[in-house]
Every structure is written in structure tokens, then in C-alpha cells.
Write the C-alpha cells for this entry.
Amino acid sequence: MSFHHPSFGTIADDRVIIFDTTLRDGEQSPGFSMNLEEKLRMAHALSNLGVDVIEAGFPVASEGDFESVRRIAEEVRGSVICGLARSGGKRDIESCGEALKKAERPRIHNFISTSPLHMKYKLRMEPETVLEIIASGNQKARQFTDDVEWSAEDGSRTDPDFLCRCVEVAIRNGANTINIPDTVGFATPEEMRAIFTMLRERVPGADQVIFSAHNHNDLGLGVANTLASVEGGARQIECTINGIGERAGNAALEEIVMALRTRHDQYGKTTGIETTKLLGMSRMLATITGFDVQPNKAIVGRNAFAHESGIHQDGILKNAATYEIMTPESVGWNKTSLVMGKHSGRAAFRDKLAQLGYPPLEDEALNAAFARFKDLADSKKVVFDDDIRALVDDESRDHERVHLISLELASGTKQKSHAKLEISVDGAIQYAAVSGNGPVDAAFRAIGEAFPHTAELALFSVANVTEGTDAQARTTVRLQENGKLVDGQGADADTVVSAVRAYIHALNKLLTKRERTEPEALS
């Protein structure tokens, strides 16, 4: 059995479409935000990873969202580029169509709530009105593209008979992908499997469309519900890198892909994802957003392939399959290796970055990263791959408005700490000299004087990149302002400098977050 789709042509029965919504649903997470250049970098990397559909954003939400979707549609090739729209939004679908105009393969993804709870309290609409909006929304979307997806928001809590009516109307009016999300993460695997089985059996025309699963992780069942949806007939999986997303997040792309690959005997499905790039993708997102994954995170956590138990270590040494169901190399892990020293040149540094999976850097970014590498090599006995990653990730961030130029500190047991700071704000140089209760406090106060703001420090955390007393520090700073949370990260051999870099990273992200607005709910 096979399907024909306007964007993919004939799709083999064992092929699952990977729909990534990191740039849309993922970026809505509290504390997460990306600017235009960061979104473009992620979109190119997602396409390179082998993602079939990239949901680039919600064009009507803000000018920034519209521009990011437009630029991604214009520049990224290989993947379908998708924009989100409310089925009954006044300007949503037109905005999507305009933003996607230059996409190689555009998709409009429109949605409306269908559960009794949402229709009564959120939409304040009768079911018949919702059906009318489903019809008109999909008809309108087809005016801009042949690739139209429709979603039943809160679909898992929708009355089965009404859900069948909604899906039938969407198909009849031009939708060729039907998404049934577990919007609030309420469903169980058995329920999600049954929903897709029911729709495929009961809805006329169901055999002519792709069914899609979008599961949230509020009960920790996002991945399990997604795999059950595949068993029920879903052929598209909506997911995010590292599982980021609203509240407890979405089903994690890397976990789903490796579950399908590792347990092909159970699911019999394949994807187009190049799994050796999963770790690099995870780390790129963590660098951009400032959120590291937890150490025991499946697939990409630093403990995912670590074995401390003596019994486990003995088994691994004899045969890795005793305690490893996949190889570390299959998802991009390699052994921490020693790299160049202080006498290494720029060409060798560039080659090392290529080996680590980095795309070519612009000359300015490469020179800045190389200069920091030389400084690190002078102060650190041994430079590891992870040291290189930390400094390059730190340097490659796009600090659009605020950038650290220099920091001088004076501190000790018999004197109050002092910080002299020089930063660039929108291209203008600002200076500050401030004392504080310790070097970090003094440095943070200096940032506040050089660039006044109302954000409050909500979290300050320091970890080491590698082992040893000369290891680089990786600092995480969380800022809070008017209910908005952002995390920033910085790395440096000097702990206070890494803290300042993290603070400035968070401050830049907060400035980006201020510009984002959300469209009002339909009513």
C-alpha cells in the first residue's frame, strides 16, 4: 500500500513523515526564544538532518514571526516549509500564504478547537459553526497551496462522532494531512491508537490523506502516545528537538526516531532522518536557547551511554550489546578526544570544526572563535573536543543588541569586589564601574548600569565543560521580566567571564522575547 501526496509524491507504506515544530511550538516554551538568524540556522540544520516538514512559525503572530517564516521559506530547501494559521482567523491564512510565497514546497497548517470544553469556554461556538469554519478555512488555504494540513485542537478529548464529522469536512474541503493532537497531554497510548484506528475505519476519504500525531508530554507519555498513534495508522509524526514545547513539552524527535529504528521489528517503519546528526542538533538547540538537556535524557543526555555499575562495565567490555541497545556512534556520540594545542593554526582549527559537525563559519566568527581557542590553549593544559564545542557555540551566538567587549575584576578577602565593564549596545559603547558583594554580583550590577533594565535574576548555575581544575566553566543565567523567562549560557575558562557571557545571552533573548505577541483566541 502507498499514498500520493502533493509535496512528497508516492509515499511507501513503511515511511513515516517527520514534521518538526521546534521553531513554532517549541519556541513557545517559557524561557525559550530565538531571533531571526538563530531560527534560520536551526531551519538549515533541520533540513540537513532530514526533517520532512519544518513548521517555521505562526506568521500572523507578529512581524518577527512573519519575517522568520518568510526568510526560511525563501532560503531553506529540501524540506516542506509550513506556517501555522487559525482556521477562522481574519488574516491568518492570507499571512501564511504571503510568508510562504517563495517556498520550494509550502504548506499551510490551519487549526480550530473541537472538544466540548474548548468550544464552550474558549471559542464560545456551537459545533455547527466550527464545522463551517473548518470548511471555509481549508478552502481558503487551498487557494495558496495544494499542501494543506488541518488540526483538531484538543482532538484527543473530542467526542468521537463529532471528530469524525470534522475530519470528513476537512478532507472534503481540501485538507490532505489530518492532525489529531493530544494538546494537553491527557491521553493514554491505548486511546491514541484507538482514535486513529477509528478515523481510518469510519471517515470517507480517510484512505486518501495522511494522518498525523502531535502529542504533548504532560503525563510523560508523549513518545509512547506517538508510537501508539503510528500503530493506529498515523503516517506523520509532529515532534521537537529535545522535546521542547508548551508546558512539559512535546514528543522528542530523537527518541521517536531511534525507537522506530531500534525497534523496527515492532513498528516496521522508517524515517529520512540521518541519526548520526541527532546529538549535534540537540546541542545546537541547547546552545541557541540556553537550555541544556538533563544528564539522563534518552539518546542525547551525557549519561545516555555512561555505565558506572561494575556489572554493567564488565558486560560492556565483553560485548557492548549486553547493555547498549544502540551504538553511541549511531546518534553522533564519539569518544572525548584530545585536540590541537597552542601551536595549532587556523586551518587545523577549521578542519576540527568540520570534524565536529559545524557548518563553515563566516570569517569574522571563525577569527573570533580561533582567538578564544588560542587563549584557552595558553591557559589550559589539555584542550578537549567539548572545550572546542563550548567556545564555538558561545561565540557563534547572534548577539543582536548587546555584546561583551571587556571585563576587569578586582576581588579578595580584604577588599570589596569591583568590576569594570565595557559592552556594545546597538553599536554604541557603554562603560560601567561598579562594586558588589563578590565578583559575580559586581559584574552583574555593572551590566545593569551599562544597560538599564528591569529583568530580575531567577537562576544562576555553574558547571564544568570537562574535567580538571583548569576546565572551562559553563554558566546558566535565568532572567525574569513581566512573567517572561529566558535562559542564557556562557562558557569561559574564567568563571566570572562565563557568567557575564551567560547574562548577556539571556538579556539578548529577553529583548527578542519582548517583541513577540500572540494572536487572540477565536470567539
About this structure: Residues 386 and 465 are 7 Å apart (CA to CA). The chain has 17 helices and 16 strands. Residues 495-514 form the longest helix (20 residues). The mean pLDDT is 89.
